[in-house]
Amino acid sequence: MAETTAAADARRRPAIQLDPRVIAGGTIVAILLLTAIAAPLIAPHNPLDQDLLSAQLPPSWSAGGDAAHFFGTDSLGRDTLSRLIYASRIAVIVALVAATLACAIGSLLGLAAGFFRGAVDQVVSRLIDIWMSFPPVLLSIVLAAAVGAGLSSVILAIVVVDWTRFARVVRAETLLQRQLDYVAAAKVAGLTPMAVLFKEVVPNVLPPLVTLLSVEMGIAVLVEAILSFVGLSVSTDTPTWGGMIAEGRQLINQTPWLLALPIGCIIVTVLGFNLLGDGLRTSLDPVQRR
Amino acid sequence: MGNGAVLRRLLLVPPTLFGVAVVVFVLLRVVPGDPVSMMISPGATPADIAALHARYGLDLPIGEQFFVWLKAAVSGDFGISITRRQNVLGLILGRLPATLELVLVATVIAFAIGWGMALLGAYFRRRSPEWVVDGFVAISLAVPDFLWGLLFILLFGVLWPVLPISGRIDPRVGVDFHTGFFLLESLLTGRWTVTGDLLRHLILPAMALALPLSAIVTRVLKASLGEAELQDYAQVARSRGFTRRRVLIREALPNALISTVTLAGVQLTFLIGGTVLVERIFSYEGIGNMAVDAMINRDLPLIQGLVLTFAILFIILNLLIDLFISWLDPRLQHG
Amino acid sequence: MTVPVLEIADLHVALAGASEPVPLLRGVNLKVAPSEVRGLVGESGAGKSMIGRSIFGLLPSGARITRGRVTFEGVDLAGMPDAERRDLLGARIALIPQDPMTSLNPVKRIGEQIGVLLRVKLRMARDAARARALDLLAEVAIRDPARVIDLYPHELSGGMRQRILIAMAFACTPRLVIADEPTTALDVTVQRQVLRLIHDLQHRHGAAVLFVTHNFGLVAKLCQSVTVLYAGRVVEDGDTVNVLAAPREPYTQALLAATPRFDRPADALALLDRAVTDTLLADARAYDAAHVEAYR
After folding, report:
1. Residue of A nearest to B269 (CA)
2. pLDDT in tens, chain B (335 residues)
3. Where is B139: in which H helix or E strand?
4. Nearest by CB: B147 against A5, A145, A266
5. Residue numbers of chain C with a pLDDT score lower than 50
6. How far apart are the C-alpha atoms of B237 and C90, rounded to whole Å?
7. How many CB atoms are located within 10 Å of the residue A152 CB?
8. What residues does C13 pair with on adjacent strands?
9. Percent of chain A predicted with pLDDT > 70
């Protein structure tokens, strides 16, 4: 009939509403940040302390467990809970730094490609094509192997692989926005291309970008886990969730909880970032573009 | 899409592949560490090492090395693997069928789950089944393929050991195949027990790969179905007395599939990339597993060959998806 | 007294709102006799679409009939078993939709879309249905039916698509056709052809037509009787000739006076008298306020 229900439903929703996912995801991310910052205060033991007499202890609630080690210990007697807590620091650093850098670089390139078009667009698009032809995992492993183990190589690997994600979205949005009337109006009003770019186009590109940034943080945590699983991340002393997974995989029959717990941490963390990102998208976007 | 568009896409392939090759080549040569270090025996003299370098062309400047490799590659010669001492092309072709079968089974599972969940969620909109579907999607999206793999190993390998968690086939089962396509062959020759064993080995890694893709398919298809249901042509169909179920499946679904395939197509390339870790975790003998080994051991010829193989697979996949989309959407076929 | 093809008695439709239900239709009474062509006039938002949706049982989510009945040939549509009502729809009661550009499925060929209708509603075999589809296309003056039948909607003009939709509406010899602003989305030049077509087909099949529009000019051309709707209520009802000559209600007068006419200069469009607008506005405000509240 004349008016579809979708239009009527869309009009019923008010301008800015706090999506419950933002609250849920935000809470998880906040807890993660707090854990990372307050690690020395909340961890019961030093994560590097080895106690061979208490090696491979199960969690405190099962048979043979020790109350002093809530989640048990690994084969070198290191307290699992403390290692999990300290590993969150690596996760947070990687998430914040790598995701932001990838976002910044990718967005700038995408913006340039979409706005200036021509040769710039051709070069950036070809680069994206080439990059998309690699399996991301493979590329990050190659890069990390090339640069050598360490936090900076992990961050580099993530940035170099994932900038394309941002570039593509920003480029598409920019191309779209460019054609809209208000950009032409701004040009007619005498603004320079750069001014038009920043005053008109950028604010409209921000909502999807914010979502992508949040999701990218989750991805960064995953990539770090993969790289430490393969042994290419920080040195083996520093606890990382991925490293703990690798150890757990080795001794899966003796200490299955060493595998399950870091997996749980990663899942909850990524879930938190994803929820936050999804929720922000629907909250920030005044026109329900979905 | 019209023939012009197909041609343009095909013309872009060689430069893209070239770019891929250059990037890999440069990256690997930048690696600190000697690629042939594994093959140096204890009593080797500097002359021996130099001879080894010369044998693998590593004494030439990078630019020359690249062109030597390129010339050979174009005629199908990808060199000899440093770690395995065999022809790279032969190694890759030997393991490729295993990965292809895994990818195929995973894709089928992903779309089966995706379609089923999306239709359920769309039909039972705003009622409890939709929340279940949404919950499944949220969890699946947060867990990447390799974590699913590890979880499955925990669940079905340790806690409740009902399925095998490594390898492609039970060594006790006869492995007299003519091709590398074990599954296909066993199906065609009717050896059902072998098929059963192969599937039991495939199911866990395939599920690990399939779940993230199925989550995306579910989410996009459900949203597209919801939109399509509200379109005028669907409403008009309802005004003709067709049930909601019929309109959903016969009118909305064909339209919803178009945007779904477009978006899910990208995720499918992630599935192929995911084989690297998943095969590793399950000790499945495909090219993904071989790639991790090659990377760790700095086996340059093998790495180059494998990366190019993956790139070619991606490109073929993208092209197939584009062709499929233009077949689905008649509006794209004209100009 | 013959049974009216369509009878709407005291129809109240309300939308479930945040605090109170929002009224969409407030006691609509409407009758369409067999083979009668009745116009349904009102501005956007007056409730014309809701009447159509109530007939087809396609109210938007949250909307419900709170009082009154819709009967077809004497039988209550809401009280009928589902399967029976669905048999009627598309066959005895048909719709000519408003926007031809979006009312055909873009990924199916014309022949397929008409064919499905014929096969399901008239239980025709595939070949017979295809032949009948060709006849239908010819009936609506499509010049090359054999070519058009295998085309996709996007390969046809808006006028052609609307004619196909009209063909599909009349395909199963309906007793009642609801034409939902069928010419609004078309060019002026094409509008005339389409109107002529509807008139011809109505005449040939003897169907009753409820012609929904906001344009009094079309009503004057096509409809024997007219019902005027405002803010969910019927404000005037009668033979077109009478209503046009001597409209009783101030709203109708205003509507007529505001309709651009060939023989009157544009600046002669009359403005409403202040007293009239105040009454109308008060009524409309109450109606709209409830709506705005619901949309919050």
Report:
1. A135
2. 456 667 777 777 787 778 877 877 777 676 555 656 555 666 667 787 777 777 766 777 777 777 877 787 777 778 888 788 888 888 899 899 999 999 999 999 999 999 999 999 999 988 888 889 998 988 888 888 988 999 998 888 888 888 887 888 887 776 677 777 888 888 888 888 888 888 989 999 999 999 999 998 998 899 899 889 999 999 999 999 999 999 999 999 999 988 788 777 778 888 888 898 899 888 898 999 898 888 777 787 888 888 888 888 888 888 888 888 878 888 777 54
3. helix B128-142
4. A266
5. 296
6. 9
7. 12
8. C25, C65
9. 88
Residue B36 is classified by DSSP as G
State residue A129's pLDDT score.
81
Chain-chain contact of B232 with C120 (C-beta, under 8 angstroms): no
DSSP structure string for B165-220: -SSSS-TTS----SSS-HHHHHHHTT-HHHHHHHHHHHHHHHHHHHHHHHHHHHHH
Q: Which of B23, B32, B56, B12 is nearest to B308 (CA)?
A: B23
Q: What is the pLDDT of residue C149?
A: 95
- What are the backbone dihedrals phi and psi of residue A24, each rounded to the nearest 5 degrees, phi first? -65, -55
Across the B:C interface, residue pairs with CB atoms under 8 Å apart total 64
Give the span between the Cα atoms of B113 and B208, in whole angstroms. Answer: 13
Q: Is C97 on the interface with B (CB under 8 A)?
A: yes
* pLDDT band at A116; cut points 50, 70, 90: confident
Nearest to A252 among B24, B158, B298 (CB): B158
Predicted ipTM > 0.90? no
Compute the distance between CA of residue C284 and CA of residue C232 in angstroms, rounded to an integer: 10
Two tokens at A215? Answer: 């999701």
Provide the terminal-to-terminal Cα distance of chain B, rounded to the nearest Å: 7
Sign of the four-CA dihedral B165, B166, B167, B171: negative
Secondary structure (DSSP) of C131-157: HHHHHHHHHTT-S-HHHHTTS-GGGS-
C49–chain A nearest CA distance, Å: 6
Reduced to 3 DSSP states, what percent helix, strand and coil does chain B have, rounded to the nearest 5? Answer: 75, 0, 25
Pairing of strands C93-96, C75-76: unpaired
Q: Which residue type occupies B309?
A: T
CB contact under 8 A, A12 and C295: yes
Q: A35: closest CA among A277, A224, A265?
A: A265
C157 touches chain B (CB under 8 A): no
The Cα of C32 is separated from the nearest Cα of chain A by a number of Å equal to: 20
Give B159's DSSP letter: I
Neighbours, chain B (3 or more CB pairs < 8 A):
A, C
Contacts of C97 in chain A (CB under 8 A): 1
User: What is the number of other CB atoms lying within 10 angstroms of the CB of residue A288?
Assistant: 10
- Predicted confidence band of residue A8 (pLDDT cuts 50, 70, 90): very low
Asked if B88 contacts B80 with a C-beta cutoff of 8 angstroms, the reply is yes
Identify the CA nearest to C65 among candidates C102, C10, C114: C10
Using the Cβ of C38 and the Cβ atoms of chain A, whether some distance falls under 8 Å is answered with no
pLDDT surpasses 70 at A286: no
pTM of this structure: 0.78
Residue A128 carries which side chain, given as an amino acid letter?
A: I
CB contact under 8 A, C97 and B231: no
> How far is Cα B279 from Cα B286, in angstroms, rounded to an integer?
7
